[in-house]
## 1
Amino acid sequence: MRYLKIGLTVLVLVQSACSGLSSPASPSPGAEPVAETLAPMATAAMELQPTATASPEPSPTPTPAVLDLEVLEWAEYPYANLVDPGNADTRLEILVRNPNDFPVRVDGAHTELRLLNEAGEVVYTNPNPTLYIWEGSWIQGGETASISACLCFDTDGVARQPWESFEVLAPLEVAMGLAYTTDVDVNIGEFFSLEEAHLGGEQLGAEISLVNTSAQTLSSFEVRVIARDVNGQYVGVAIHGSFADRDSAGNSVRIEPGASGGGIVVSEIDYVDEPLRYEIAAIGILAQE
């Protein structure tokens, strides 16, 4: 098996993420045609000439209304191994869904997560949540995706206040021209202690295998592995990133149909110490001709 070199992408924003979700403006109607007035005829003998009739312009295709992301599940966890034991910052792990039946692109530069108190007032804002979405940019129609955000009251020097709810503000637009395939096969082995396996680090790792089962050439695989606890509660993202093949000089190598590879990946979840079960989602990004 050829081993792919792994580059995990950290999606900061995400958030394209979290400003108020707004639907794209409807297209402006075309200008009304201007009626031309014929000058009166000079004599009765003058013959009227037929005037050219302009062909009607095709009506623009209406832009579909874009629905906001839906929050499905969320959980709050303390950070592991903080240098300052007095720091009480926590992390919010959120599972969202694209309710539209078409792909949407997320404006990560304007994504926000806001904490609200009982009166609905904003008591804290994180303008840079991490969005675990394809190519850091888009979500398939009807698909779930993940968001992680730090509730960094202490780190930001903000007075800690109680909160009752939150909102994710993520401007969306219809995603056009996506070139990908879902015909990929990705498997994750059992997670094990990297330290006990003498591979370095105190986190968990697992072996990943990837196969291009499509009939098309790929530039990379995109993989997301989420975790749930024994009760089915959403915990967060264990593995996320872009997996590509490179030659000895570090240049990208096209992944031909049937090509496979793999390697060891490290879990991003170090804030829970209990058995977890994992759910894998993956796509292949088509190579540009």
## 2
Amino acid sequence: MAAMADITVKKADETTNIVYTGKVASAGDRTAAVWKSETVGTAPAHNPSFSLTSRSNGDGKVRRVEHAGAYPQTATAADGSVTVVNIAQGSGSFAIPQGMPQTDINEFVAQYCNMLASVLIKASIKAGYAPT
């Protein structure tokens, strides 16, 4: 089991790092681990966030790992108050069979996560359309 830690990722310029600070470690199944990028926004509600939750299926043959992320857009009113006006969100779920060899699980995770990080998939998500 991995220990909670801060996560550093590249910003949209593919050069600058941004840190997602580990805010809450998971207390066990169905309890989310939560990270926030505290350098964005002026209040906790303005911070981009990422969460990861895990649990077994009914018979324990599959572990399900679910992730979700949110990136708020804020606006400043004439009186100086800042509010969230939009939130970009993403989520997904992985089902990991507990009888599958670890080498196959490792390969699946590497390839799947690298697909999500690929230029084409990132461009498609940014545009809001699958490649044509």
